[in-house]
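Usage example:
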Amino acid sequence: GAGVSQSPSNKVTEKGKDVELRCDPISGHTALYWYRQSLGQGLEFLIYFQGNSAPDKSGLPSDRFSAERTGGSVSTLTIQRTQQEDSAVYLCASSEDGQGSSTDTQYFGPGTRLTVL
Amino acid sequence: AQKITQTQPGMFVQEKEAVTLDCTYDTSDQSYGLFWYKQPSSGEMIFLIYQGSYDEQNATEGRYSLNFQKARKSANLVISASQLGDSAMYFCAMRDLTGFQKLVFGTGTRLLVSP
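Running the assembly step on the lines above writes:
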């Protein structure tokens, strides 16, 4: 079946602009995760959704970052007033239930490369 | 807090040889899972293998095996019979199996397989 998809694959924006990144999880997966991968910080967790609610937002770096998920499916990560330090690859992952069971593996999408000029 | 340490920034191996990528972890959790992911130059994170903290046997998936030594808190990935397509970044990660679901990643090891 289809894997996790993300769009756009690349996004170049100017400092101060808002951007929206989209993630389409694997069909039927109730849990969805956003991570960020940058040269200086490695792979960092941003936010976790269980269904449409986000029980863990602890990784969002500032209030310029927000995310939502609708219909238990598609998620959008929004970055307002982008800064150069936001430049990174944003990765989305999904898993079957997110309930901590041992077999609940996270499967990743191809990522969105964000460049803030 | 959980922490993953990968001490090998880069590894070289010849085609058809075996290679071990090191991973040590630190956690106070009793129930946790350890994962290895492969990231080729295309950027996608590909799940390779999983080991649960209570699993008594080492996990194996095809050419991948995980050398799990719980007392030493290590979870090394062994790739047998390396192929050119194995050249990629490899990340070790862990998560708590009872609490929040986020993965904590190591800094990765870049593997280069030469002909």
